[in-house]
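Exercise 7. Given the components listed, write out the predicted structure of the assembled complex. Treat all entries as one system.
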Amino acid sequence: MIVILFAAITHAASEQFKGKIYDTGILKPFDSKTGLKAGMTAPTFTLPSVKGEKISLAQYRGKKNVVLSFVPAAWTPVCSDQWPGYNITRDLFDRNDAVLLGISVDNLPTLHAWTAEMGDLWFPVLSDFWPHGAVSKKYGILRSDGVSERALFVIDKKGIIRYIDVHDINKRPALEVLIKELEKLQK
Amino acid sequence: MKKRLISCLIICVAVFLSARGIDAAGKIPDRNDVFPEINLPEPAKTYEKDYLGIPEKGSFLLSHIKADIVIVEIFSMYCPYCQKDAPGVNELFRMISENPDIKEKIKIIGIGAGNTPFEVDVFRKQYDIRFPLFPDESFSIHKAVGEVRTPYFFVIRMNPGGSSKVVYSRVGSIGEPDEFLQSIIRESGL
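Answer.
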């Protein structure tokens, strides 16, 4: 028996991005299965940032909790509707002694142009372009079409994964859920 | 096999029709249109209830707001344009609040499309917004007003008897707050 379900996934598009967003349509919510779990050591990586730095997960060991925000692609609806929100919540991350690293498989020029539309982001934006999706793959969230899942990983100062949210790619994760997980690290 | 196929088709059509019914977006209310009657959740703060002049408890309809004009901003905490525009909208609120001739006649509310109460509160605190903001987590209000881009401003003339008329309907910044205020006073016949 075949059941075709029609679901309307909505988002509120900012006028900022008018005419610049590529409509992906509704995608398969998940297209990978990570083998990582809370309690495991987070895979290490070093990636280039749009500001010209090389950022390693290891540089935060012993110093900061880390939130990895993987988004599938620049210039797409939900992604363009996620990081600008994090841009006004730096105090929530600071309060929980955390940094945020934004990661996508787009190349640096693309990420530069896209994030410039969001204003001056306080958090590093990293390109997982080459080797293509290598970090996304390490984290078990590389989809079959070459983009990453929409995923959040919370990693403590010892480098241990404390929370994973591989989210429906068509929806934005609620901010308060992430902040609650960060607050747990302070206890 | 034939019966199964027919059953399957019936289910598909039923799901399609119900999805269309539930999820079909309204048309964007334009100038001179009647603004859809929207249901808003109970305000988070007591001073917001006093400001709006609405019943003490529970959700309420837009038409319950005690005002001649209601300015409705559809925004999102995640919208960079809304973030940039927030100081200007705050200035508009200040100008109205400090003018004894209009402060009881013109009210402003913001509706956070797709935002949770927590996210709306982040936006409120970040920009020190003093007018009521409401979450629209399920996008139901956003759909009712035509799934507008953000920020989107409606200015609604509230007529006695609960009807309303849109006098301004536009996407993007309000521009200079004093010019915007003068134009909506003019357009609404206040």
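Discussion: DSSP finds six helices and seven strands in chain A. The beta strands of chain A are 46-48, 54-56, 65-70, 98-104, 125-127, 150-155, 161-167.
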